[in-house]
Each structure stands twice: as structure tokens, then as C-alpha cells.
Here is the input.
Amino acid sequence: MALGKTISMNFLTARQRFYQEIQQPNAQIDLAAAALYIAQEEYPALDVEAYLSALDALAAEASDRLPAESYPLKIIQAISQYLFADLGFRGNQQDYYSPQNSFLNDVIDRRTGIPITLALVYLEIAKRLNFPMVGVGMPGHFLIRPAIAEMSVFVDAFHQGEILFPEDCEARLQQIYGQPVALQDEFLQPVSARAFLARMLTNLKMIYVSCQQLEKALSATERILLLFPDAIYQRRDRGLLYYETGQFTAACRDLAAYVESAAAAEDRPQIMRLLNRLDPDWKNR
Here is the structure.
């Protein structure tokens, strides 16, 4: 899809705006804008600029609360105090799997969300305060940390900005999975902007599949594939969702690509049987 830079953003769809944003290098992707374009597919009238301005306003208020000493922990404590104690942002424990928790506009309006979207609000405030932080995609949970290599300090935005050290992260993992889990170095590595957005969309996809909103699950999967076109398991899932929504030609195309690329996949025989039912001659096309 070729999108000319000269086309006014007013004439682009939310999907096109999202695509245009993620064509930039990871470091230049505006996470907040991209997340709002994700939400704009759910809310076509959403004013993206208004919510970006809302983040600017939050950061301006937070700047008045920063300590005179610019020590990282003191800055983190000030941001957390402002967001969670003063403004009342919180993790949505009562309705964790509501899609609203994954839409940045809803999180800002309702001041509640899931770990990754609350982390996004925190990251955007910190960025505007010239205190860069990064997302950390720990399994089953999402954290943030200062972009300072020598600091092994993590912030849990879902739990009121709780400060964690690596041993606390391991304990949190064990709490989430209900069994001993050994902390591995890769669990605490920063995620790229594209991986951040893919994780947001994967959350939405899983929510929509669980409540059988398959068209919306398909929409989320399509956007994951815009981020990572070679993600073969996402290609399989898109094919299955095409099948479930009656788009059989598109389903065959994706599922055939999957069985050709994933020769060792455990579910390959089942996918091939489905392909044979859809189009017995699919191998010759």
C-alpha cells in the first residue's frame, strides 16, 4: 500500500494512518499516536490530536510536581504520585478483559486500564518530561523502566507505580503463573515500538476471539501483520479468521502460505485437512 506523504491526514482512514506511522524507524514511531489510530477503528470520530494534547497537559501538570533534585527514583516517585495518587489512574481489576482497557482514549478518560496501556500513559508523560523510559514485555505482565543502562529498576503501572527490582519481577511472575518461574534475562529486555503495538493488538485479538467478535479479531490480526508481515503464526490465525467469517479465498491463500512455511508445525496436518476441504486443488494454484 503506497501512501503519499502529500495526502492530507484528514482524508486517511484510521488503518492508513496507523500504517503510515509504523513505516518509520522504531525510534521515530509515535506510540501514543499509533495507539490512538488503533482506537480510531473502534471510534471513527475519535480526535487523535485532542488526546495527544491531553497527554501534553498531563505532562505539564506533572512537571510542576517534579523534585528539585533530578534523581531518577525521585522523578519516578513524583510521576507515580501524580498519576496514581492525585489523578487516580489504576489497574482495572474488576473488568480486566474489557476492550476499553486497550484503547488509549478510554484509558485516559476512565483512568483505568491494563498493564500495557497504563504503561503507555506513564511512558508518554515521562517522555514529555525529558525522562526517557522504555517498555518491558515480561511474560504475562508489562513493566517500564528508565532508559538508563545501569539501573535495574522497574515500574509496575498496573499496581500504582510500584517499584520493582529483578527479584521482585521474579516473584511477580510466580504470582501470575501460580508456580515457580525462573527469571530469564530476556524477560526484562526493552521492547521495540512495533513489538509494543503488536502486544496491544494481540491483547485485543484474544479478547475478541474469546467473545466471538471475529471481525474485530480479524481487524486486530491484520494490523499485527502490518507490523510484522512475516509473522507466520499470525498469517495462520488470519487465515482461520477469514475462514470463520466466510472469506474462503483469502483463507486458502493464508493457510496455504502457512503450511508451506511451517513444515514442522504441530497443527500443520489439521490445517492441510481444512485446506483440502476448502479447495481440493489448492496445491496446484
About this structure: Residues 1-8 have pLDDT under 50 and may be disordered. The chain has two domains: 11-188, 230-284.
